[in-house]
Amino acid sequence: MRTSQISYKMRTYNFLAFDLGATSGRAILGTLGGGKLETKELTRFPNLIMPIHGKSYWNIFGLYESLKAGLKAAAATGQKIDAIGIDTWGVDFVYVGKDGTFLGCPRAYRDPYTNSIPEKYFKLIPRKEVYKRTGIQIMNFNSLFQLYAAKLEKSSALEAADKILFMPDALSYMLTGKMVCEYSIASTSQILNPRTRKFDPSLLEVAGINPDILPEITDPGVVIGPLCDALAEESGLGKVPVIAVAGHDTGSAVASVPAENECFAYLSSGTWSLMGIEVREPIINEETFQMNFTNEGGVDGTTRFLKNITGMWLLEQCRKEWKKTGVSYSYPTIVELASSADGFRSLVDPDDPSFANPANMVKAIVDFCTATGQPVPRNHAQFIRCIFDSLALKYNYVLGKLQQVASFKIEKLHIIGGGAQNRLLNQFTSNAIGLPVVAGPVEATAIGNVMMQAKALGVVGNLQEMRTLISSSIATEVFLPQDATTWSLAYQKYLNIIKK
Length: 500
Hints:
40% of the residues lie in helices and 21% in strands. It is globular and about 65 Å long. The relative contact order is 0.13.
């Protein structure tokens, strides 16, 4: 038996995971002992964009205060905290001066200052060449385009910056005074070459930006340093080590997939869905460029090859419209409504540009159905069923594209995150793809964060050992395909609709 396996069976470890999303953050206590993992939410706090004079910022100093509150909450449990880790959303960063001071608050990726910036940048380096070098899908808010936008607006922060720190690295720096640049979060920037696992300085040089602002890259799962003296004393935790976990929240989430082997695909499901496979080498070619697939850094030397899919965004926006008329539905009621409506009456492509940010999602769905010659949903149940059917069929479409480039046969789909609780959509997805669906864990990101802390301390050995432990600790539910003929015919209908 491995030393690490003996370790967590003979004593208990407590890990503090900070998981920050674009609207809120949480402090999660992960306890590993007796061969099992348990998690408990300690604090929850808002993370709001600050609009100031036409620009949008993250209040990183407010987030720092929230982290301090989380540290104190962990100390109040009376448990010895063995390590701390932070994960966040991708692409955003802080400018740091030569004296180590933050040069203001970081701009938020929703700031419109990057609108039309990619097209301007592609006059310097063509779109296809940027993808070839980075393997990252083109999105206007990627860090590369944020930096170019800052250059064009003559940002004083950029001009004075000695370094940039991505969000989880900046927060870890505030806790420790030590700077790192963790690989998974750096990979979201569209400045990193996934083959060399290093930044490509020429991508900044052509834009007139000094590439020296890019820090040296650190692999996930290493110790950054202990809490600084002031925080160690103020929080009551002492000199607890802070770990560079998979700083990108999706990287942490995928690390928690309770897979038995490498022959799986994953779906991180929520407002947005991310479907992909785990590979050892990036997949960058003409086909993946045309399909707009992305290659992001994973743990243990892996690459997350994935596609962004519009997820429950369509339903959330419909609910917002219905709420204006005084109608609100609980989630169980939503599932009941979807179950009560006939399937495949109306289908949409969730990734159609008309659904990106419409003024009225209900009208956008009506317009799509009208334009494609389909019956228009007549009641809320039909709208919900349309969305659920369409998402399941879209997942089948993307999974087929993944299988085309995968070097292995995909045997099952693991659904992780909040969407894993949607049992009806899980069943629809299994029906659509014709494969088993394994749902869970719901707390995927926090669990992946905790397990990378454990790996850094030698409590667990490698990625597969982490996943075996998670599988034995977390309840999952398996959905098997049903109604194969019905769903096959529906998929042909879906393909004809999206061609229109």
